[in-house]
Amino acid sequence: MKIAFLGLGHMGLPMARNLAAAGHEVTGFDVMPAAVSAAADGGLTTAESGTDAATGADVVITMFQTGAQVLDAYRRSDGAAGLLDVAAPGALFIDCSTIAVDEARAAHALAEAAGHRSLDAPVSGGVVGAENATLAFMVGGTDEDFEAARPLLEAMGRRVVHCGGAGLGQAAKVCNNMILAVSQIAVAEAFVLGERLGLSHQALFDVASNASGQCWALTTNCPVPGPVPTSPANRDYQPGFAGALMNKDLGLAEHAISATGVEARMGMLAREIYAQYAAGDGAGQDFSGIINTIRAESA
Ligand code: NAD
């Protein structure tokens, strides 16, 4: 089975490496020459272009930044051959980028119209998960295509969940990250409120982590240093999950909220709060650093 892996960035390169290490025949490509050189230096087979990598491929995996990049690579707007034109007939297209639900559905439709099969398979777990092959995949597409992709996804991740039909992997991702954003803000507000009331960080942690306030934003990504020694707060909010990426994902949530007309007031407020955070230093800091903004604005 011939696999093309396109998009060798922070996530894509370690994912492609893990796939090759599991014994698959992988050819990688990225539009950034430096990313191709880094991949080749690391021993990955690379190609001269995206279509070169995908020509005759049975599986085409993409790991780009945006939905526009995915759609344009599938079917080029300038009329040149796109990935859908050159892959083997009936190839399986797996897009692992985090993109909007409607963009993912458009990508599925393009692949289907070209006689191919496709899945949306965004991930969580970050660069560390990509390197250690411990990513979680959220997958949208048919049962048959999901089963065909499963061994490949399991070579790159630890948890693979079939969420339903086309676009529903992206739907799960956007819903999960909206929960995460809202809960991280709530936890940060609670710590600042506790400080003002004279409550120690450790005391609040000991109570809430064993009570109904318990959540990942508290017990793994604790926004104050001390209670969880591995959380970004202990290393001056180095990410982790950068504010810029949370802001991107909340932009996708906002798009989905307005497309569906859902009354998601907390989600939209989180969107606004993280857009401001990411417009400043927060872009490059962990999103739990929002506590510093809350503290400063409470002064
Ligand atoms: P990145 O910018 O490091 O990598 C994306 C790569 O895609 C870039 O190197 C870019 O040059 C390349 N690219 C774009 N168009 C291309 C094309 N047509 N052909 C070949 N290469 C092309 O981004 P990343 O951090 O690896 O993230 C990738 C995706 O994963 C994003 O959608 C992001 O939201 C999502 N994600 C990232 C993380 C994280 O922690 N970095 C975690 C979960 C999900």
From TrEMBL:
Query: Care to name a GO molecular-function term for this sequence?
Result: 3-hydroxyisobutyrate dehydrogenase activity
Which keywords belong to this entry?
A: Branched-chain amino acid catabolism, NAD, Oxidoreductase
Residue ranges of the TM segments:
none
Catalytically driven reaction(s): 3-hydroxy-2-methylpropanoate + NAD(+) = 2-methyl-3-oxopropanoate + NADH + H(+)
Domain 6-phosphogluconate dehydrogenase NADP-binding residue range list: 2-164
- Matches recorded under InterPro entries: 3-OH-isobutyrate_DH-rel_CS, 6-PGluconate_DH-like_C_sf, 6PGD_dom2, 6PGDH_NADP-bd, HIBADH, HIBADH-like_NADP-bd, HIBADH-related, NAD(P)-bd_dom_sf
So, what pathway does this thing act in?
Amino-acid degradation; L-valine degradation
Give all residue intervals belonging to the 3-hydroxyisobutyrate dehydrogenase-like NAD-binding domain: 167-293
Task: Note the Gene3D superfamilies from the entry.
Answer: N-(1-d-carboxylethyl)-l-norvaline Dehydrogenase, domain 2, NAD(P)-binding Rossmann-like Domain
The EC number(s) this enzyme carries = 1.1.1.31
Which protein family is named in the record? Answer: Belongs to the HIBADH-related family.
Protein name per the record: 3-hydroxyisobutyrate dehydrogenase
Source organism of this protein record: Microbacterium psychrotolerans
Task: State which gene encodes it.
Answer: mmsB
